[in-house]
Amino acid sequence: MTYETPVAVAPPERRAAAPVRREGGVLSQRRGTVATVIMAVLALLWLFPLVWALINSFREYEYTQVNGYLSFGGWTTSNYRQAWSQGDFGLHMKNSFLITVPAVLLTLWLSSMVAFVLARFSYRFNLALLGVFLAANLLPPQALLIPVFRMFREVPLPYFMSDSGSMLNSFWALILVNTAFQMGFCTFVLSNYMKTLPHEIYESAELDGASVWRQYWQLTMPLVRPALAALATLQVTWVYNEFFWATVLIQQGDKLPVTSALNNLRGQFFTDTNLVAAGSIIVALPVLVVFFALQKQFVSGLTLGSTKG
Amino acid sequence: MSRPLSTAIPRSTVATTAATRRSVLRGLGLGGLAVGGASLLAACGGDSGGGAASGSGATVKFGINEAEGAGAAHDRLAAIAQAYQKESGTKVEVNAVDHNTFQESINTYLQGTPDDVFTWFAGFRMAQFAENGLITDLSDEWPIDGLNDSFKQASTAADGKQYFVPISYYPWAVFYRKSVFEKNGWEAPTTNDDFMALMDDMQGKGITPFAFGDKDGWPAMGTFDILNMRLNGFDFHMSLMAGDEAWDGDEVKGVFDTWRKLLPYHQADPLGRTWQEAATAMGKGECGMYLLGTFVVDALGENGEDLDFFTFPELDSSIGSDALDAPIDGFCVAAAGKNQEAGKAMAKWLGSAAAADAGNNAADAPFIAANSGASTSTYSDLQKKSAEVVGAAANIAQFMDRDTNADFANTVMIPSIQAFLKNPDDIDGVTASIQEQANSIFG
């Protein structure tokens, strides 16, 4: 990420004196080993519960209940089959998809427009506006539970959009709530990112006669693609994993997203923990796939705005 | 665990300001179109309009607290819904939500867009809903053939009207392995002396008398309930639950003190053990007995042929042992439901023997029907005995978390009982703290 300004005549001694960057950065060999050990231990701490769940999701409940979880044996894949059918995950995955995709697209679209204005135009209230967006981000959703619930109850929707006749029990409600809660963060990241774009581009665009809309859509949007990709990855994860609003605003079992539907695997009293582990792994898979598929974008998008040329 | 919504919010009068609606719709439409997600979103809406009349051709929405795939519990309710649809011609739309989610979001459910008829249970919380105007008066539907006075009583709220229709129940009792008792020549105790002798004998043979686990928080409530009912009587128990008696008085302290003396006969460190693990310990014969509901068989992965139970023996001969916890499940009609007439009609039918039979004939495991006319042919031995024992009981409580304020049960009693189990010697501290919190909750 170092950016060296090209100098016409560079003294050769200075170049040689520049610190040689080796793999591992500035750490010495010994310190590097220590760091690796610490990181390995931390990684293990993080991975242990996941791996433990993964292992036990392949074991029979009857076996582990009798022999304890420290035993070895009782291997089966039936937990996965049972979790998929008992949790009705096909339906709930579809619900999650119908909520997540529009919510993420809407969030990115709206927040990129706000960010564009905040970054490109100097109004007196720019900073205040950004502050408001960020402040809303700091409010815990729990504090807004009752106002949002009552507001949505009073908003009528035609029956073809929501069979409850109101915002409650409809995907619209979840899409809107998620969009509203994620916009603050996205606006913040995008506006910071857009501020790093050189101002000269806009001046020449202006000279060429590009309208504000065109500056936004055809100039800024392609340039912030890395940031959009990184945010999209994050947003998909967050909206997909969202649990709280879904349980509050949706009261119809067949409309719950897949995270809330995990509860379908628990009985009134009895819980087959191995089955729940299998269900959790299934539910976590889409997020992992999205993350690994977009990993490169994610890292580059987050760091690209961090150095100024 | 219930959301802080327990204060009654008057039911919404739907404010239809056209301008608001239009602008919201426009906003949504624009957003949807612009991101190219409009076609995706089209799937959001449902298609049901919902009729308004009852009887043939009408539609009634039926909210049930068991998710599809939850096994017999769901199958029974689904079969009941189907049977009603066939018999009355009313279309029944089932909304299946898993048990815990349903119970935890009941407040938002009832104040939002509830189904017409929904599954619930008898007790204090049902009465609270009635008081807050969230459920519909069903006194016109009562009496219902085959449901006796004690069920009518359990369905009645503070205003003397019925708001509930029971369908089934299950008792809490002391379960044991028949084979283990036979092998050791033990018998179910009836007096306190027999009981103590039995526990001493078990300990002498290296068997822990009582399996015990309270990681889940609620199982130990059953122990408190039964000790309180045995030591202070049913009436005191119920008014204590309603917040009318002192939690730091001698009576409650006496309960905790007796419990403290019984703790050495229980499995140690109960806070680290779920009820399922405790049940397994009893199933494997490491423990002799387990005080739990009949659902104990679920954790053993068997049909309960080698299980038997007895009601908790008397501790005070002047009080006796004729009271027990036997939670009753059933149905209410939501006041915010769209089709009140159809809901009431269905609720009445749900109390009938036909409804119970329809459920029991369709599932692997039957419930114990509340209606005396229901067939008992599918019952297991445990259930036949349960029906007998509950029928013989003079007083029936519903279990602590149903008999008292939900906030009190979940946020006060669970941590308090767990604190007591962690440090059984600080009874004064625990009871004083409960009383303090009870003051703020019951007012």
From TrEMBL, chain A:
Record domain ABC transmembrane type-1: where: 93-294
InterPro entries assigned to the protein according to its UniProt record, in alphabetical order: MetI-like, MetI-like_sf
Spans through the membrane: 32-55, 97-118, 125-149, 169-190, 275-294
PANTHER family on file: ABC TRANSPORTER PERMEASE PROTEIN MG189-RELATED, ABC TRANSPORTER PERMEASE PROTEIN MG189-RELATED-RELATED
Keywords, sorted A to Z: Cell membrane, Membrane, Transmembrane, Transmembrane helix, Transport
One matching Pfam family: BPD_transp_1
Keyword Hydrolase tagged: no
Native species: Nocardioides potassii
Identification of the protein by name: Carbohydrate ABC transporter permease
Family stated for the protein in its record: Belongs to the binding-protein-dependent transport system permease family.
Membrane topology: Multi-pass membrane protein
Keyword Protein biosynthesis belongs to the record: no
Subcellular location field: Cell membrane
Main location: membrane
Automatic annotation (TrEMBL), chain B:
Keyword entries, A-Z: Transport
Pfam families on file: SBP_bac_8
InterPro entries according to UniProt: Bact_solute-bd_prot1, SBP
Gene3D superfamilies assigned: Periplasmic binding protein-like II
Keyword check for Transport: yes
Domain of life: Bacteria
Record family assignment: Belongs to the bacterial solute-binding protein 1 family.
Cited PANTHER family: ARABINOSE-BINDING PROTEIN-RELATED, OSMOPROTECTIVE COMPOUNDS-BINDING PROTEIN GGTB
Protein name, as recorded: ABC transporter substrate-binding protein
Organism lineage: Bacteria, Bacillati, Actinomycetota, Actinomycetes, Propionibacteriales
